[in-house]
Design a protein that fits this description.
The protein folds into three domains: 73 residues; 220 residues, D-amino Acid Aminotransferase, Chain A, domain 1 (2-Layer Sandwich); 181 residues, no CATH class. By secondary structure, the chain is α+β, with helices and mostly antiparallel strands. It is built from 17 helices and 14 strands. The protein starts with 5 loop residues before the first strand and ends with a strand. Strands 9, 10, 11, 12, 13 and 14 form a six-stranded antiparallel beta sheet that branches.
Length: 534
């Protein structure tokens, strides 16, 4: 009591409890909670029991000296609190001068809705462009953002059409003759094209010669806007031209997803190449966005992959966002985000990276990056032609419901987890050994810091507290990391041998960072490194 070493733990954290007891701390147990089951196996004490019972028996043994000490401090206020969620903690305890592993109002960057809004403000806070690390995102419950998304979807469809046209022209000679009037807007047989055997459209499938011209016009006007050539004249939005967008999108869907063909003249081919090259200079996401216009719809405040849907149809996004098909989601509380279509896969399978970091102060902002992390794999091979969750959501809470499909590469780990060391070995096999330290890690650090600075003024904090976060990243084909979200309560429940080791390590090292370092600034803090202090 005199040394202020009374702690309280809420949730399944046997490592935290064990480490604090080893430091001479005494636990104040929650009243009325009964036995606290912890999902962690401790064979040293009770090797014959299942994991939960072993921990239960060790912690709740009535003869334990720890239980006796806990009884003696049952009326004392804890000096250190480690809990799942701040809201689950008695606020009378939080008003005292104690250390807590959470800050208040972090939803400004730990919810999908909050992160989307905060990063919109980033260019006004610092010289950084969120489009270079965060797939563009819109809150569908906000009318202006909903309209901005509709315009973005249409513009992306126009750019995608140019990419599809160039791709098709690369496989077959471009058209050299005038398109018959009867072909416009109707089915045009392959025999009307020179060297038809190289043409990729299905026999008798529609060809849309006007689509390329319309897409070129839209993209040219958009480029003019990006170049600020519309400052001295009232140029309408590229999506408010005379194009019938409903018709354009329906025909684009047939080209992108239905096998319909496109006609491209040599002049149009050159125009497409030039336009896309200039647009790439202005749009950091032009390459990663691909050509199928896939978007991912997410409940704004949910986690663990709940309610997430991938789609390629504008009308589906708008219809779902205005309904309440997900029972836990309020109408309008959806965000829609551009799907990273051109991503790096491992053995043909999508993966993401869970990266930990700790904030120990907000003024001055002080951030510690954990040098170890892990990868999470999907259960089925990656395909943009099939948008089911098993192929596209890497969350452990999602993938645990799926068995590995028979067509999955056998080299994908059975538990769907890799350590960053295994990933580095894989990169070395690709001849990209330097990518981890020169591209991925610097990119993840920069994205995390930008996200924190964008939300810094929203967070409520108390000196001495801290918080451990888990950021999720995708990796593009060019090895650039793309931030997806930041979690305020990253799971510490091991789902594999890799996570059992890493989750235990990060908890131990966090206690070294926030407790031991106060008394001994030179003590080991494990895999943590200071990456920012204002």
């Amino acid at each position: 009591v005199q040394e202020k070493k009374i702690f309280m733990v809420q949730g399944p954290y046997p490592i935290i409890r064990r480490e604090l007891r080893a430091r001479g701390w005494v636990e104040r147990k929650l009243p009325g909670t009964g036995r606290q089951l912890e999902h962690h196996h401790d064979p040293l004490h009770y090797p014959w029991l299942p994991a939960e019972k072993a921990e239960e028996q060790r912690d709740e043994d009535p003869n334990s000296i720890h239980d006796l000490m806990s009884y003696l401090v049952r009326d004392r206020l804890p000096n250190f609190i480690w809990t799942n969620f701040l809201d689950a903690t008695d606020h009378e305890l939080l008003q005292q001068d104690n250390v807590v592993n959470h800050y208040a109002r972090v939803d400004a960057f730990t919810t999908k809705e909050g992160l989307c809004l905060s990063l919109q403000k980033l260019p006004w806070i610092e010289q950084a462009d969120p489009n270079t690390f965060f797939p563009r995102c819109y809150r569908l419950g906000i009318p202006d953002e909903r309209e901005a998304f509709i315009e973005d979807f249409r513009l992306t469809a126009a750019r995608s059409l140019l990419k599809l046209a160039l791709e098709e022209a690369g496989d077959s000679p471009v058209r050299t003759q005038q398109v018959p009037n009867s072909a416009k807007g109707a089915s045009w047989h392959r025999s009307h094209i020179s060297h038809p055997k190289h043409f990729t459209a299905w026999p008798g499938s529609p060809l849309y010669p006007e689509l390329v011209e319309e897409a070129l016009a839209v993209c040219k006007q958009h480029l003019d806007v990006l170049w600020h050539q519309d400052i001295d004249r009232s140029t309408p939005s590229p999506c408010r031209t005379c194009i019938d967008w409903d018709r354009f999108l329906q025909q684009y869907y047939r080209v992108a997803h239905g096998g319909a063909g496109l006609l491209l003249t040599k002049q149009q081919q050159k125009q497409c190449q030039n336009l896309l090259q200039h647009l790439a200079e202005q749009l950091p996401q032009l390459d990663m966005e691909g050509k199928l216009n896939v978007w991912i719809l997410k409940p704004g405040a949910e986690s663990q992959g709940k309610g997430i849907i991938c789609t390629t149809r504008l009308e589906e996004v708008l219809q779902l966002a205005c309904s309440c098909k997900a029972p836990s989601v309020q109408v309008g509380r959806w965000v829609v985000q551009k799907y990273v279509e051109r991503l790096l896969t491992i053995f043909g399978t999508k993966f993401d990276i869970r990266q930990w970091f700790v904030v120990t102060d907000w003024k001055p902002l002080t951030v510690w990056f954990y040098r170890d992390c892990y990868l999470r794999f999907c259960s089925r091979p990656f395909s943009l032609c099939h948008l089911e969750r098993a192929r596209h959501l890497c969350n452990v809470s999602v993938q645990k419901w799926y068995k590995t499909s028979p067509d999955q590469d056998s080299r994908v780990p059975p538990d769907k987890i890799w350590s960053n060391k295994q990933f580095q070995e894989y990169l070395a096999q690709l001849g990209q050994a330097d990518v981890w330290h020169q591209v991925l890690v610097p990119g993840m650090k920069a994205a995390i810091l930008s996200a924190l600075r964008s939300a810094q003024d929203q967070v409520r904090f108390s000196k001495g507290s801290f918080e451990l976060y888990g950021a999720d990243f995708l990796v593009g084909e060019d090895f650039q990391p793309w931030l997806l979200e930041i979690n305020s309560c990253p799971t510490m429940s091991p789902s594999s041998a890799v996570t059992r080791r890493l989750c235990a390590n990060v908890q131990r090292d966090t206690l070294c960072l926030v407790l031991d370092r106060k008394d001994n600034p030179t003590c080991s803090i494990g895999a943590f490194e200071l990456i920012y202090k204002e």
